[in-house]
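In response to reviewer comment 3 from the previous cycle, which asked for concrete evidence that the modeling workflow produces usable outputs, we include below a single protein chain processed end to end. The sequence was submitted unchanged, and the resulting structure tokens are shown without manual editing.
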Amino acid sequence: MDNRPIGFFDSGLGGLTCISQLMKSLPDERIIYFGDTARTPYGSKALSTIKTFSTQIADFLIQRKVKMIVIACNTVSSTCLDHLRERYPDTPILGIIKPAAQKVAKKCNKNNSIGIIGTKVTIKSKAYEELIHKLNSELKLHSLACPALVPLIEEGIIENEIMDLTIQYYLDHFISYHKIDTLVLGCTHYPLIRTNIEKLYPGISIVNPSEEIVESIIDELSAKNLF
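The workflow returned the following structure tokens.
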């Protein structure tokens, strides 16, 4: 038994969508969550800035003797995962992109049209596309940055016409033009507007990385006897 906490961090409150999923499966685990609401959003910042911020937060968590770090941020996962693993080789560090990419590669086929939405940095990195195509090269992938969504979510503007209009501004043409039937929520803030998206685009299949990461956490805890 290892009673040290699991460390989670995100650019803001979005990563809390991972915590709620984890606690359903592992209610006895202790958690330290760092949400960098003072410097959010990360998705429009320079890569050097994102690297500095993520290193500072990881240092903070390591000082508090966490047994694992979960990067509950697609922007950081797409740009800084290797750097953080090199910096802390003795601490398991999980990114949020790989589990969702594996889910898409497994559940979808060449007849699907898959949309990936995220921050500017995540979309520009092509992290989802590269990993999904490595696992299943026949899939049709389409990506779109939606930079206004995170600030609205951080402000609590969710059950509101402003949010619905913003979602439609980004997704109406994107979904209709590419005939999207599967949508990857490539930002941990986006599950907080999942209900809005499903209401506006009924029938679309949602892949939520905040849910998919849980199995990877359980596997890592089991493999290293860290429960």
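The chain has a mean pLDDT of 97. We consider this sufficient to address the reviewer's concern, and the full set will be provided in the supplementary archive.
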